[in-house]
Amino acid sequence: MLLASTLAFALTVGSPPELPIEGVVSPCTTAFDIGPIGSATADLARLAQLTGAAPVSSQLHLRWSSQPEVLLCGDGRAPHHASLPAPGPGPADFELRVLPSGLRSRFNSAWADDRNDGALWSGRGLSTAFEGGVRLRWRFLSATVAPVVAWQQNRAFHAPASTAAGKSVFANPFNYGAIDLPLRFGPEAFWTIDPGQTTLRVDGWGVSAGASTENLWWGPGQRNSLLMTNSAPGMNHLFLGTTRPVDIWIGWLEAQMIWAKPRESKWFDTTGTSRPRFYNALNIGFEPAAVPGLFLGLTRVYLYAVPPGGLTAAQYLGLPLVAPFTKKSLVTSANPTGDNPDNQLASVYARWVFPGSGLEIYGEWGRDDHSWDFEDIVTHPSHSSAGMAGLQKVFETSSGWLRVVAEVIQTLEKPTNNPPRGVPIFYTHWNEVQGYTNRGQMLGAGVGPQADSQWLAVDYFSGPATLGGWLERVERNGRWFYDQVGGMWAQDVEFGGGLRGGWTWPELELSGSLG
Known about the structure:
Blueprint: E1 4-11, E2 30-33, H1 40-51, E3 61-63, E4 69-72, E5 94-108, E6 125-138, E7 141-145, E8 148-152, E9 190-194, E10 199-204, E11 207-212, E12 216-218, E13 236-242, E14 246-247, E15 251-261, E16 277-288, E17 294-305, H2 313-317, E18 343-354, E19 359-367, H3 374-379, E20 385-396, E21 401-410, E22 437-438, E23 441-442, E24 452-462, E25 465-476, H4 478-484, E26 492-504, E27 508-514
Antiparallel strand pairs: 1-5, 1-27, 2-4, 3-12, 5-6, 6-7, 6-8, 7-10, 8-9, 10-11, 11-13, 13-15, 14-15, 15-16, 16-17, 17-18, 18-19, 19-20, 20-21, 21-24, 22-23, 24-25, 25-26, 26-27
């Protein structure tokens, strides 16, 4: 049996700033700091959209440096697209602020369960991380230095050792050696020093660009998302995109590109023969003017195993991201099948928010392989696919708010009755053997490949207090069990539940979970 508990606290230094609001008069006059992706304050900022206490925004492409504060409207009637002033050229005011510092600890009694905790590795035993930093702003330039220092007890637990040639005994044995996702990070306790949410960015005239190691989150999911979550440490990356959604008359458009370098863990390849990788992604978001509160998004990713001669200039520039999606378009006399040695992933997603009803619904569908043509997409939509769907609903009570969240995800594609067409494993690729990971942790959904999960949570918010509970079922490594084990009772399924809650003081926030 696994006993999982999480305890976190954050210490806020100073008071929230009073900032000017674009196009909005009182009572929309308050902005407060929110923490990094996955923090309690980030969760409250999203919840505030459903109560009318904050303007509705897409929440589809998150990075902390783009939204370090959130606007609040005291009467619960936030105007559409009300926002804080966009960063950019302005007064030569210099601002240096100490960021809230925090301590996060997690204890797993029986086995490792690492999800949505960034640079921290939640192995068996106690894992704890301290984070904090400073933020500097001057005109169009901003810089955040927010490192993470973590200690992981990393105790041993019963797990099958990998026997694949050239792989560490700690490597994951359930994905045919095709992903850098160790079951345990080595034989002993260890320290981690990570740059965390460190960022240098320039904002001006509606465009932002910079270099960062911060965590990102793409898509509308809260527990899981298909192509980018905060389960792994942030990648070293460059980014270029819109500072905020741009009015294009028929709606509001946002876009972003990143260029990144995922790293391999020490507990995967023992021969040093795995090739370095290059990561390139394009995000597009759109809110139609005719349907306020409906946010649509698209993400396309290329993950390259860099060949000995290096990539082409077109690949480094990201030109394949705007190429056709089908293999048929890649056919040449030298490549009659249109096969591509590069790993392409793509997903489409939507989030629809109804502040008047306290409701949001959302979903995401992704592919980890090119289709031959449009007919192939229509006739075999489940091939190499994954999906996520969820909803969040809040109910006003006499003394607070009751919140219900439900979310399901499936990255498992079971064998079909079409033997000529193989069934790939989502997040893995024949030519890019480390899979969709960074430093041994998932870039995508924390449940990992071959997984199927359902999550339900209920929370009550009243004044400074929060109290709730959750239930979750996770099936892991489903494809491996179908292929290797068989038998209807042989699957690796975890069913869990627990309580969670928190309390907020003016300068201190304490939250925890026991499951």
